[in-house]
Amino acid sequence: MHPSLSVIFFTTASGAGYGLLALLGVLAPFGMLPADPLFGLVALALALGAITLGLVSSAFHLGQRQRAWRAFSQWRSSWLSREGVAAVATYLPAGAFGIGWVFLGSVSKAAGLLAALGAVVTVFCTSMIYRSLKPVPRWHNRWVVPNYLSLALMSGILWLALVLEIFGPRPELHKFVPIVIALAAVLKLGYWRFIDSAPATSTAGSATGLGAMGTVRLFEAPHTSENYLLKEMGFSIARKHAAKLRRLAIGVGFGLPFLLSFVPFVASGWPAIAAALAAAVLGTVGIFVERWLFFAEAQHSVTLYYGASAV
Questions:
Q1: Which of 17, 91, 248, 305 is deepest in the core (most CB within 10 A)?
Q2: What is the pLDDT of residue 64?
Q3: What is the pLDDT of residues 150-192, one digit of tens each?
Q4: What is the mean pLDDT of the chain?
C-alpha cells in the first residue's frame, strides 16, 4: 500500500495525543499527577494540540475535503465514520476536564475518565479501520489493534514523563515507562513475526477461480500505464529495505527510549529532563518509521490481477 504522509502523521500525532490524554484522565483524578493548574494546562495543551494537528492533517488525504462531513453519517457501518464521531465527541469531556483543572482548580473524576475512555475508543476505531480490511491480510489480523493501543500508550507516557520531569518528577510512575516501552516493542516484534510467517491467504489462482486448472500467471498487464490502483495499492518495498527500516524503528523508537527511561532513576534536574525529551522525540520518530512500514509492507489482494503470485 502507498504510505500517505498525511495519514502517517495523523496516526502518529493523534496516537501520542490520545495516549497522553488517556493517562491524564486516569491518573490526575486520583492524585497521581501534580494538581498544579499550569501543569494541567501544559499537559492538556500538548495532548489536545497533537490530537488536533493529527486530525487536521488527515483531511489532506481526502480527495474532496468539502465532503468530509459526510463521513460522520456512516457510523453504523464504517469504522472511519466511528473514528470521526469518537474523535469529535472526546473533545467535550476533555474540554470540561481541562476547564475544571486549569481554571477552576478542580480535577473532575467523571470528565477525566470520560476523556480517557473517548481517547481509547478513538484509537481503537482507528486500528479497526485497518483490522477490518479482509483484502489486506497484513492488516486483517489480531496483532493490529493491540499494536495501535500499545504504541499510543507508549508515546503518551513518554511525553507525560517529560512534562513530569519539568514540573515535578513522580518516582512512583518512573518504573512504568520502561515497562510500557518493552510491552509495545514485544507486540511490534510479534506483529512483524506474524506477517513474515503467515501463509498467503489468496493466490492468483484463487482470485481468478482458475487455480484448479493449474498455475495461474499474468499473460499481459491490464493497463499500459500506471493507474490509481497501482499507485495506491501496488506499492511495494524491497525486503532488504524493510529489514533496515525495522531495525531503525526498533533501535530509535524502542531501544534508545528504553535506555533513556532509566536516567531519572540515577539523576535529576536537567540531565533527567534532557533524557526525557530525547526519549519522547526518538520514540515519536521511531513510531513514524514503524507506521510508514505498516503501510508500505501491506499487500492488497487487487495486486493479484497485476502480476502478484500470492498475498
A1: 17
A2: 62
A3: 999 999 999 999 999 999 888 888 889 999 999 999 999 999 9
A4: 90
Q: What are phi and psi of 298, to 5 degrees?
A: -75, 140
CA atoms lying within 13 Å on the CB side of residue 177: 33
Q: Which amino acid is at 139?
A: W
Looking at the DSSP assignment, which residues form a beta bridge with residue 310?
203
CB neighbour burial string for 213-226, b if at least 16 within 10 angstroms, e if fewer: eeebeeeeeeeeee
C-alpha cell read off for 180:
510500557
- Furthest C-alpha separation in the chain: 74
Q: What is the pLDDT of residues 67-98, one digit of tens each?
A: 666 677 777 888 999 999 999 999 999 999 99
Picking from 257, 288, 250, 255, the residue whose alpha carbon sits closest to that of residue 275 is 257
Q: CA angle at residue 233 from 227 to 236, to 5 degrees?
A: 105
pTM, rounded to two decimals: 0.91
The DSSP line for the chain is ----HHHHHHHHHHHHHHHHHHHHHHHGGGT-S---HHHHHHHHHHHHHHHHHHHHHHGGG-SSGGGGGGGGGGTTT-HHHHHHHHHHHHHHHHHHHHHHHHTSS---HHHHHHHHHHHHHHHHHHHHHHHT-TT-TTTSSTTHHHHHHHHHHHHHHHHHHHHHHHH---HHHHTHHHHHHHHHHHHHHHHHHHHHHSPPS-BHHHHHT-GGGS-----S-S-SS--HHHHHHS----HHHHHHHHHHIIIIIIIHHHHHTTHHHH--SHHHHHHHHHHHHHHHHHHHHHHHHHHHT---GGGGGGT-SB-
How many Cβ atoms sit within 10 Å of the Cβ of residue 142? 11
Give the architecture-level CATH label for domain 5-306. Up-down Bundle (1.20)
Indicate the domain borders of the chain.
5-306
What CA–CA distance (Å, rounded) separates 100 from 122? 23
